Amino acid sequence: MTRGLLGEPEQQAQAQNMMRMHDHGGRVPAVRTGASVAPFSVAMPLPPVLAPVATLPGIDFYRLSIQPSTTEILPGVSTPVLTYGGQFTAPTIRVRQGRRALVTFDNKLGHEANVHLHGGRVPAASDGYPMDLIANGKSKTYDYPNNQAGATLWYHDHTHHMEAEHVYRGMHGFYLVEGTDEQQLGLPSGAYDVPILLRDALFDDQGGLVFDPADPYNRPTLMANGKSQPYFKVAARKYRLRLLNGSAHRIFELSLGNGAQMTQIATDCGLLPAPVPTNKLVLSSGERAEVVIDFGAYPLGTQVTLEDVSGPVLRFDVERRALDRSRVPDRLRAMVPLAAATQTRQLTLSLDPVNIQALINNQAFDPNRVDMQVRRGSSEVWEVTNSDTNVGGSGFGVPHNFHTHLAQFRILDRDGKAPLPGEAGWKDTVLIQPGETVRFQASFADYLGRYVYHCHMLEHSAIGMMGQMEIVS
Predict the structure, then answer these.
(1) How many Cβ atoms are within 10 Å of 126's Cβ, its own excluded?
(2) Do 176 and 191 reside in the same domain of the chain?
(3) C-alpha–C-alpha distance, residues 239 and 218, integer Å
(4) What CATH number is associated with residue 195?
């Protein structure tokens, strides 16, 4: 059983008082328990694809502002948000494997911010290190080599202590790497390759977003691409859906309302070795999964609902016929055998409700402390344990997840049991339930410098559940 960030009511109150200093304006507005709008009353938009401002042989140049804006999440209600490019679901950046991208961000937010390419294998100076910030009124260019397999990545803020609030208020968008091996597979493409950012929120009586880090479970409004429980019109054919959990804390447990099967084809860092039929997807904050749904199996006029355990998220309306030459092949992407591990490390995740800290190996994040040195080119086994089975003596357990910057990993086992078939590919984020130990093997192949690893339930990383590794030669 789980509950909010801290176990006891008085400790929750302490956390609220401490962390609400980041709530712009300092006032906690009156709240309602959910959006008072009819589900499926608005269409789900698709994030626009950002066009390069310039191109050269082998390189594309992009530019985006970081700025406050307003958006209509609830029909007829204007909500203040923080954005990349002025849009609540930021513009999608589509790049090709092996083709470099330079992305310049102009900070017009009014305070410091930055950008982390989640899942990107990038130089340390372009990783969005939590203390490497863009001052208000300044710009920074991030260098993304894209020397990695095709995958659904995303970009979001990583300002230390503010990452949860910034992402919650809208600083998130897709970054899609098109793999050189994908065209020959025949997967659904073009208009039938659809990115969908899933998240949640709590609104006040004026339609403003309420950020309460002490109670991240009280965010009852579910969204897809920035709209509350929208519909999406589809043709009777196969679609490739790129699902991203862009929430700051929620775990989505997704299924189709009629119990129909989906075919999972990819996880965080790209295609699986082979497609996996499934009727349920579990995505913690920051995780991605790609599925193919064949709407050609339904009569025209059918409505198919994507549901979370807490309620419906999105409805697909099958409304027209379309030619479909796409397919899902039996083999997708071969997995290179893992190299021999050079070291095994143990990490334990825990909350300290007395001091209002979140810890890794009993230490809160300190940017002046290097927690481990890792050799470039090495491969290591990490054993990560969630020790929060009884937080503050409350009798409640708290889930965590774990995200590595720079490194991608393969899950070896969960409490000694083989990972699920949908976890067979390369990942960068993994859910760890209370009392559970996950072992994975990570590869550190590319760059030198300092990178972080942390719980991607961002309220936890914001109060210290983060460590620092230095990649050395």
Answers:
(1) 21
(2) no
(3) 32
(4) 2.60.40.420
Taking CA atoms, 384 is separated from 300, 401, 437, in Å, by 47, 9, 5
Q: Do 392 and 313 share a structural domain?
A: no
- The tokens of 301 are what? 């006029």
Structural domain including 239 reads: 185-321
Confidence (pLDDT) at 25? 30
In the numeric block, the tokens 């401490």 are attached to 18
Contact by Cβ (8 Å): 241, 224? no
Residue whose C-alpha is closest to residue 5's, from 424, 351, 364:
351
Cross-sheet strand order for the sheet of 408-414: 357-360, 343-352, 378-386, 437-444, 408-414
Tokens 């899950």 label which residue?
411
Report residue 263's pLDDT band, with 50, 70 and 90 as the boundaries: very high
Tokens of 102: 């330079």
Q: Choose among 194, 213, 310: nearest CA to 252.
A: 310
Burial of 137 (0-12, 13-18, 19+ CB in 10 A): exposed
**307 and 378 belong to one structural domain:** no
DSSP state of 128: -
Residue 95 burial class via C-beta count within 10 angstroms: exposed 0-12, middle 13-18, buried 19 and up: buried
Q: What percent of the chain has pLDDT over 90?
A: 89
CA-to-CA separations, 365 to 9, 129, 285, 360, 442, in angstroms, rounded: 25, 13, 20, 8, 21
pTM for the full model?
0.93
Same domain, 56 and 173: yes
Structurally, the chain folds into a number of domains equal to: 3
CA gap 76, 290 in Å, rounded: 32
Q: Per-residue pLDDT tens for 297-352?
A: 999 999 999 999 999 999 999 999 999 999 999 999 999 899 999 999 999 999 99
Would you say the C-alpha torsion 292, 297, 301, 303 has a positive or negative sign? negative
Same domain, 375 and 234: no
Assign 3-state DSSP to the chain and report helix, strand, coil percentages, each to 5: 10, 45, 45
3-state secondary structure of 191: helix
The Cβ of residue 383 has, within 10 Å, a number of other Cβ atoms equal to 15
Rounded Cα–Cα distance for residues 212 and 205 (Å): 15
- Structure tokens of 59? 């390189």
Could you tell me if residue 368 is inside a domain?
yes
Q: Give the tens place of pLDDT for each residue, 205-241.
A: 999 999 999 899 999 999 999 999 999 999 999 999 9
Provide the mean pLDDT of the chain: 92
CA distances from 136 to 107, 112, 169, 181 (A): 5, 5, 18, 41
Give the span between the Cα atoms of 372 and 77, in whole angstroms. Answer: 48
Same domain for 119 and 30? Answer: yes
* Residue 1 is assigned to a structural domain of this protein: no
Strand 221-224 and strand 227-228: the pairing is antiparallel
Cβ-contact 337, 377 below 8 angstroms: no
Task: Note whether 303 and 428 are same-domain residues.
Answer: no
